[in-house]
Specification:
Largest sheet: 6 strands, parallel
Helix content: 40-55%
Order of helices and strands: HEHEHHEHHEHEEHHEHEHH
Structural class: alpha/beta
CATH architecture: Alpha-Beta Barrel
CATH class: Alpha Beta
Number of helices: 12
Bound molecules: zinc ion
Amino acid sequence: MKPRILLCALLLAGTAGASAADRFDVAVTADDLPAHGTLPAGMTWAGIAHSYVDTLKAHGVPETWGFVNAKRIAENPASEAALDVWRQAGYPLGNHTYSHLGLSQAPSLEAWEADARAGEAVLKKHMAGHDWHVLRYPFLDAAGTGARHDGALDWLKKQGYRIADVSLGFDDWAYTETYARCLAKNDAAAIAGMKASYFRRVDQQLVRTKAMSQRVYGRTIPLVLLTHMGAWSAATLPEVMKRLDAAGAHYVTLDQAQSDAAYRAPSPHFGNGALMERQAQDAGIDLSGLPAVEPVGNLDALCR
Ligand SMILES: [Zn+2]
């Protein structure tokens, strides 16, 4: 087979199952760099980052913002190598506050601002010459509505920040600690069961999210996918990306996704939780009856 024909065959194989009508834009993002959760024995944070970016690059993801908690580097200096891996891939780093502090959990607005500021030195270092003023709220906690919510947004705007919203996620964080326990116990059957359930849930979440977008916006809006840079997410990302491809995903940058009007709609709850649920709440749209996603299940009980 001539190389060009082979390439076409591969491209066709890669889009099998998704018609042009299914196609939707997705910006991929990763939270909790350089270290999300427990590091399983025999792994390094740099290795996990390598696996992550190799998978994303293999699927043509042009950009993946990695949102950093610099406190993890103070706790484990070796983890900083994961940020080098990210930057070597050409992917940008943004702020997730220094200590992963929820805005509503902070002692005061000023304390939260100080924590966000404390996260900036490592961004200046690794993003020299590039704009790193993008913030993902830890826990997607923008303190509801009112003075603290508005004060934080005002402050962020004055600092030149834009907010990385979220409109798609698979609860990957919920599996992190159980996965580390099951690896330590060498419980391959438990891990296989977790993966089977997780991948079903990925497919179900994609169906649900598209249906929710239709109900809220009358169309499939560009999506912003939230992932977490830990061992579980890296191990499952190849299969997750295959399923995204099969569902019609076309990968774009965060700014491309968020240039859509859906991300610019004013909201008193701006920044809280996921975008579509927020818009539905603001607009009084009932989300009942959408395709369901099976529960994560009792992961706490596994591999004890
Ligand atoms: Zn986080």
